Amino acid sequence: MELAEADAGGAPSHYLACMSCHGLDGWGSPATRVPAIAGQSSSYVKKQLLDYRSGVRGSQKGDKWGAQMALMAQPLSDDDVAQLAYHLAEQPLWPGAIPNAKPAPKAALPCLGCHSKDRAGWVTSTAPILWGLSSDYLFRQLVAYRQGDRGGAPPGEAPDPMAGVVDSFLSDQVLMDIARYFANE
User: Do 62 and 167 touch, CB atoms closer than 8 A?
Assistant: First the structure.
């Protein structure tokens, strides 16, 4: 696939807007609660961008972070989305993307079915790599799933499996324990 060249080391030109939050290398910023996106599978990145563009993500009341991403995704064409997804999948993972060597808390065990410790499965998975992401970011996403602010599906698509895993019975403390486990804290 040919990519529109930009000053950002061969990234598509529309990646310049992404860099303002996710950084030149796509490694995000825990200080500003922006996730790393470099090295995520192209299918995952593409789905997220399309969900933001269509309003499946970022249109829920109170989702200010998602609303920002939805605004960024609005002007992207299908080709732009494909180029960004391809580019990000080809980038090196962020330095902290290392599975936790500690035993998983009981509440995190169902998560490992999709968010594997097996690095070989990361390339083909449609689930994002969570290892080493900020616990603040991960906690915020888990709370959004619990509240029903995340996990919807466009009409005609299968529901997001996370919507059924993170339920209202999980306390903030349990969600933080899961977030800290994946953040390697």
Answer: no
User: CATH number for the domain including 74?
Assistant: 1.10.760.10
Task: DSSP letter for 61, please.
Answer: T
Q: How far apart are alpha carbons 86 and 127 in whole angstroms?
A: 16
Query: CB-based burial of residue 26 (10 Å sphere; 0-12 exposed, 13-18 middle, 19+ buried)?
Result: buried
Phi, psi (deg, nearest 5) at residue 34: -105, 125
Which tokens go with 138?
A: 């991960």
Is 8 contained in some domain? no
Tell me the β-bridge partners of 34. Answer: 29
pLDDT in tens, 76-119: 999 999 999 999 999 999 999 999 999 999 999 989 988 988 77
